[in-house]
Amino acid sequence: MHRDLKPFLPYQVFLNYPFDSKFLPLADAMGFAVVASGLLPVCALDLTSPDHPRLDMLIEAIQYCHYSAHDLSRSTGEGKSNLARMNMPLEMGMALFHALVSQRNDHRCIFFVPTPHEYKAFASDLSGLDPRCHHNDETLLVTAMYEWLRSIVPGNIFNSRPTVDIIAKFNEFKKRLKTIRGANGTGKPSHEERREIMYQMCSESRWWDWRKTRAGKAQFPPIPLRTVSASR
To answer: Vertex 89, ends 83 and 91: CA angle to 5°?
Structure first.
């Protein structure tokens, strides 16, 4: 991400989720709900600057996002050493501190877990924060995410539509995703390409209008997408 995050603070949602491929449908659900709301998703994958320490970029990103959503679907270790990665809890802790120290005026958080009870064994402090359970169902997650945003984002900047319309468009997104051949060598759409599909689809529905002006296009430049048929 090359743009300055600060001017977009009221519209940005920081997303914190596992980057493993098996969790990708849940990541897509969170991102799509944000874009369909007319807002701007930001996550650690968007933060690239070789001369800027990663932790500094994360702190800045959370500071300049008025909202954040945290999906704690990964709780176990991996590999021969069975080590768990702690980046997600670290980002969640930074966002929660930002919310609490500002009396939830400068930052609002929501937390998602895959099952109703297991999180009490690895993050028992979440019990007082009313985490939402998505049961590893991306439709439930996109619904919960969109309806949470509708409940707290000012109406003048939120794209309010019937949730059933958001779900229908998300199902279209999943179908369209299969028609895109990624340019990264794996054949699968990259993070940036998946985000671009969301931008295009929600722009077509007039839900996301950040590219309406020349200045907006400069801040959110389109990236080319290649269809499977065109790549043959």
So the answer is: 125
